[in-house]
Amino acid sequence: MNIKRILIAGIVVWLVEFVIGALTCGWLFNWVYKLPPNIWKTSINMIGMNIVGIIRAMMFVLVFAIFYKGIPGKGAKKGIVYGLLIWLVGALPGLAGMPFYMTIANTVVIYWLIQCLILSLLTGAIIGVIYKEK
Questions:
Q1: Is the dihedral of CA 60, 61, 63, 68 positive or negative?
Q2: pTM of the full predicted structure?
Q3: Is the bond into 72 cis (omega within 30 degrees of 0)?
Q4: Closest by Cα among 18, 10, 129, 6 to 66
Q5: Average per-residue pLDDT for the chain
Q6: Range of the domain at 39
């Protein structure tokens, strides 16, 4: 495993997700969070959110490094395949069930599913380009 590339890719993934999250959730699609029922906090703990974000990004890259040889493709394509697989086994089943046990607007769940798919594919492609084993 290439620890240096894991760290670099993790930081890049975290920054990309932070910027896209700020642009989409914080601005462009923030209307989604105003749909009833409005269950969202009015104040956000940015420090905690960023700590969790960087840990999640590092784990995303670490799992890619662990499964590197088993993921088909090369470069960005390898990363896109990885991102799709992670979305299929993680986000899709986790988010799709939310309306059955949470009081949450279905529009929010659909928005999260689409956003997570796009982010998984994009960050997977980034990892595929940055992380390479020799």
A1: positive
A2: 0.90
A3: no
A4: 6
A5: 93
A6: 3-130
